[in-house]
Amino acid sequence: MFIDELIGFISGLSFWQILAYFWPFFIVDMCRYVLLDTFLVISYIPAWRRKAPLRMAARKRLFTERPLVSVIVPGKNEGRHLAKLTRSLSQQSYKNIEIIVVDDGSDDDTESICRKLEAVGEITTFVSNRVRGGKASAANTALNFARGEYILHIDADSFLASNSIETILIPFYLDDSIGVVGGDVRVANVNQSLTTSLQAIEYMKTISTGRTVLSMLGILRIVAGAHGMFRRDVLDRLHGWDVGPGLDGDITLKIRKLGYRVVHEPHAICYTNVPVTPFKLAKQRYRWDRSLIRFRVRKHGDLLKPSANFRFANFIASVDNLFFNLLLDVKWWIYMGQIFIFHAAMLEYIFVINFILYMLANLLEFLVAWSLFSNTARPQDKWLILLIPLMPLYTGLFIRIVRTYGYLMEALHRTSYSDQWNPWKVSKVAKRERL
Amino acid sequence: MRQPVYLRTVQSLGRSSGEFDKIEISQLKSVDMASIACWLIDEDEPELVKTLVEAIRQHPCPSIYLRGVVLLTDKNINTDDLSQQCVDTCSNLQLFDKTIANELCSSFSSINEWIDKLPKATEFSDINISFKVLRFLVSRKAEMLPVMSAQVYCGYDYPLIAPMLETNDGTILEILDFLDERALLTPRFITKTHLCNNCNSAFLNFKEVCPHCRAEEIKAAELIHHFKCAYTGEFSDFTVNGKLQCPKCDMALHHIGVDYDKPSVVFRCAQCEHSFQEPEITSTCFSCRRSCKPEDQVSKTINAYSATAIGQNAAIFGLESLFTNILQNKLKLFSPEAFTDFLQIETARIARYKISNSSLLMMQFHDLEKLQIRLGRRAEEVFIELSAIFKSTLRQSDVISARNESIFFMVLTETALPEAQLVAQRLIDAITALFESNLDYSPAISTALKQINKELQVEALLEEFLEKNVH
Ligand SMILES: [Zn+2]
Ligand SMILES: [Zn+2]
Ligand SMILES: [Zn+2]
Question: Which value does ipTM take for this structure?
């Protein structure tokens, strides 16, 4: 009978009522994430196939020139993950690599693990910074010792598919104006918990599909720290990374400002371990989300202002990011207010219909992502489709609330300056210098 | 009345000896041992001092080698001078006066009284070097302190004992260890040292090398981390006109800990450009030139030693020879007298019946004493195995006797020379195999075989054999 009432409610809706009750879905999310993404991915696949001969030629050039690739792995207390990473590196189809691990003041057995890996040659150079300096300084330490023409920045708790380095290098041989290529990041511990499974679906949407689309539009604004290949000369011009958090997004924007292209390569795969419990996930996202305020708005606000080095794509990249993160967040709360105040009588119908709409959208996005990388997916991933009904709750409620909290805290208190993620001495300087 | 005795080398006849006896090294054994109060050496040349002290200390007679030695010198008394450390006392006095001589003699009275207590103190009986060292230590009633020295292989010397040894190749440490393991000495930790695993030399050149290509030319670089911009690079990147300036953001760096820090030190190889934090350490030996890693070096504790109560007792009554003891129990050794008797009977028997052939086998192990020192506690096991070899190779009717721990005589009854030759070879092979497989050591063994007949002059033969094989 609820179903009957629901059908009755729907059939009685006029076009304007639909728009009034469900405007966030139809105006924003459906247009941006469903229609645009689907359209672009569908056009991406044949274009990608068409470029196969070019890619073959680029690959041939790559293997003739054989540039040295420095894989840099900054981290703290990550020793236990490293053996898996170094094994995946030793199994790469592209062999001319060196591996530089920087330990940023670990207080566990990371150093002894790394010294052993260094002794057997699994790690080329291991640098232990006894005093913690933060992730940016660890990455910069690694950069100081890297001898490669290309720098692959990778997180210690992840590992690579065997053709990953080869695949992520090819875009550089297709286009000289590319400064950095982001690799695909997929969830390694998919089946560890419901939290990790849901993140696996989320990563498919936001990274595999999302970044491919942004890359096609020329407005990719972030290359994941977990998996990004940089041109050495570009990093040298920037003197490496700036103080974090959010240093991945920050350096990507700086590379864009230098006039280089930033692209995503969905076929170069890195598997990473994601937080297992909702609480740890919340903490991680809280940290990520605050960086939006700090870097996009405070530090790179100039991208939005017309100036001498104004570039339209950079402008759009920032607008897209700000709009679809910050403003959508505001929109969500406005919408909630609207429903509770004006449509309290129809609350349950509106929620159920929204749930169904977002579930269908998620299903479509999942299928789109699957079509993009089905050839590189692991067989067990297809069962994730059964969890699609949970996604509206995951992204619509959980992630939304964490994000809002993060934005608010950063906007009001600049809490990221006192983040434990950076050592206190660095945070103090960053706050004083208003970085 | 005891008198000091001047000892001199042939080269230094010129010095006056006043009213004291003055003898040459070659006359050592003919001196009246009971009346020696101490030895006087009046030489300035360190080499001559050394020669004289060695002649005294290496002598097998307790009444000679245990006596105090006084060095008369015009030079300043200098504790760094090894030739002054190897004697009991140094003196600037021109010692021609009876009263001073008496004082000197009485200062050695405790040593001399101890020597008087020894049985056979005037015989040439002390051949075992470990035993001599023990006796010397006990007679001095003082702790033997190690002295750092660039003159000896192992870097530490016990200058008073050192002249007892013919070489300074580290044997002294082995002897002291040997005595320590038998609870004859008490060690007191002084320091430790690392020795070459090939030649026991302490003179090692330690080097930090590239772990990648082992090149020795490596450079250390300090890293600097600028907090503000997170730039991290080598110290040299930051130095502009002698001041620290960040190459990324051009800011001047003022206070360590406030706007920058130094997170680590990293080495870079000049040969292969490899960067690393932990250089490999190798050491090259100055004497044999071999290189080895620190974990392969011989780590040695350097102790001061004093005698235990057991040691004091053993110093007077003798160290029971370990090897002969074991052989005695396992093999029923005959005494030299019984052996000579048996040999005569056997000679007569063969002469009378003219149908038998028996052989005399003489065997000597060289360096056995050295080996015994090196083996320490394990010596016992090895000697038990050694006697098992004798037992399984020889027959029940064979007769064995030992002159000392390393010289053996055997009568192989009813064994003609060719078969005796085989027996000897089997013994040598088995013993060599035992040492080589367990100890990585090839023993030097000499043998001699004689058919037993009535022309055989036993004593003459033994003399001849020993004569031939001593050194
Ligand atoms: Zn090297
Ligand atoms: Zn700086
Ligand atoms: Zn050596």
Answer: 0.81
